[in-house]
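Worked example 3 (structure in, sequence out).
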């Protein structure tokens, strides 16, 4: 079996239209793989969302107001920065 370098070298000897078609075919194969990965990621996110909704609805977790959460995070970051400086 030819190495990748040998395949590339051989393809570079083809006329431009043939090289373009080869490139197009290779790119399409990557798109198909990306689509498969996207389906898996979408399924994983749907599962994660369902789990989080169930936790909220069951009362297992408590929601926090967005601005309050950001303020708390800023305070935490500020305190860490001050500790590093001292």
């Amino acid at each position: 079996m030819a190495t990748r370098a040998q395949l590339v070298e051989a393809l570079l000897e083809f006329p431009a239209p043939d090289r373009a078609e080869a490139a197009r075919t290779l790119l399409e194969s990557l798109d198909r793989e990306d689509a498969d990965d996207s389906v898996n990621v979408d399924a994983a996110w749907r599962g994660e969302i369902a789990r989080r909704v169930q936790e909220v609805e069951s009362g297992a977790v408590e929601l926090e107001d967005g601005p309050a959460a950001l303020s708390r995070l800023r305070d935490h970051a500020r305190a860490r920065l001050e500790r590093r400086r001292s």
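Notes: The chain is about 85% helix and 0% strand. The mean pLDDT is 91.
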